[in-house]
Amino acid sequence: MELYLIRHVQSTNQVLESSDDIVFDPHPTTLRERQAEQLVDFFVAGEERIRFAESGIDRLETSPMWRAVQTTRPLTKALGLSPEV
How are the residues of the chain apportioned to helix, strand and coil, as percentages rounded to the nearest 5? Predict the structure, then answer.
């Protein structure tokens, strides 16, 4: 069995100027779309990349945190999988 751990994309907490403004479940920043699409590029596209069809990966799990769920969206769409929370 192979396990890939992927950190969530950039959240609004990561770009705050003051730690006083940190929230419990921050939303992703606008950079999120590019970062999440790079996951698709890495795992699905290109001969030198990991190919999900060849690797046997058939399951995605995610934290219930908003930024984590948003990170998985492009990848789940590309793979036709539903993430398990």
Answer: 45, 5, 50
